[in-house]
TrEMBL record:
Keywords: Cell membrane, Membrane, Transmembrane, Transmembrane helix. The chain crosses the membrane at residues 48-66, 87-111, 123-145, 166-188, 297-329, 335-356, 368-386. GO terms for cellular component: plasma membrane. The keyword Cell membrane applies. It comes from Trinickia violacea. This is PST family polysaccharide export protein.
Amino acid sequence: MRSVRLPAFSMQASFGTSAATWVLLQQVIVRGLVAVKFLAIGRILGPAAIGSVSVALLAVAIAESLSDTGLAQAVIQGRETPSRAELGAVWTTLAARGAFVGLLLVALAPLMQSQFHLGGSLLLLQLAAALPLIRGIASPTYFVVQRERRFQHIAGVEISAAFADCTIGLVLALAGAGAYSVLIGMVFGEALKSTLTWATMQPRPPLKLSWAGIGHYIGFSRWIWASSVVNLVLNQFDKIVVGKLLGPAQLGAYQMSSRLAQMLLADAAIAMSQYLFPTFSAQHRHDPHTAARVFKLYLIAATAGLAVIVVVLRMVAAPLFSLVLGAAWMSAVPLFKIFVINMAIGALIAVLVSYLRAVGDARAATQASVMQMIVLFAVVPPATHYWGVTGIAWGMTAGLGTAALWMLYRTIRVS
């Protein structure tokens, strides 16, 4: 009789608590639900409504980037597991940050409404302020779970939150809630996620205000904060320009083409970085040479796969938009063809950043972002003059390429 131990062992290993299978499963389901939600709601509501939501989420992204503490990455990368007291200090910091960002967004909502031509959308902008508050009160034990590579647990939490977000958003959109359906779904999803971090993850940090005990994280986290501020300019500059100059309808078309390209390319790498960062960190702590070898294999595989996907997506861009979103969105096709290139480069950058942060070189990612910003400011003005909104997209390509090359050079130096 033939032995079946090897297949049984392989299956067990593939679905072990720390297996990459859970990250991939989470990626497929969560990103699939997000895609269904935004594409379906985009088809129902049209570019103008999506543009209004984009402005609200843009405000959240700006505020969160400017106040990024970098503590999540510092907890994951640190050599020692944080104590309950340290987790309590992390929670205090993140909760205070969430409350500050939420109040700031409520105060700035009237200004955002006037600057981005959003008549009658004040409540929509104020509703977005709930997102950073809910995220801030989540249990920081979530970062410990990431550090310990308990990807099965993380997948369960993320999939549950995404399902709630998608279901509620679609139901409200079909019921006529308009642009509010997107944000209300996100609020419910984030609330469920924060609840699950407290209900299912141990150890629970003490619920008391304390900032003591996390000073040793600051040296690493300051580079994360600096990188977030620079990335704020890089990732939101184009959207601010389009929204300010052209209004919500044009911003909706620009944002949807970017979002669709991100769903098909960059999201997979960004989600995979949830596995790569703690994995590279653990391997580097035990054997730096093994970590460097594994990183090179991931990078080669990612480059080859992304090149093929880019070629295919550019070929099928027009029928894809016609089928999925309808005739109202066809003006976004030329932008989509540029964004698939940008998102492919962004996917490679996600792999590079995971490794550089894992080996303690968070500075390299910040330096790359600064270079990208310099290129962007140098290239976008003339490109916009000659090619309009597509010039902005091509300017992003030049900046992303520069950043990727610099980080690749730094990984070669530390390997």
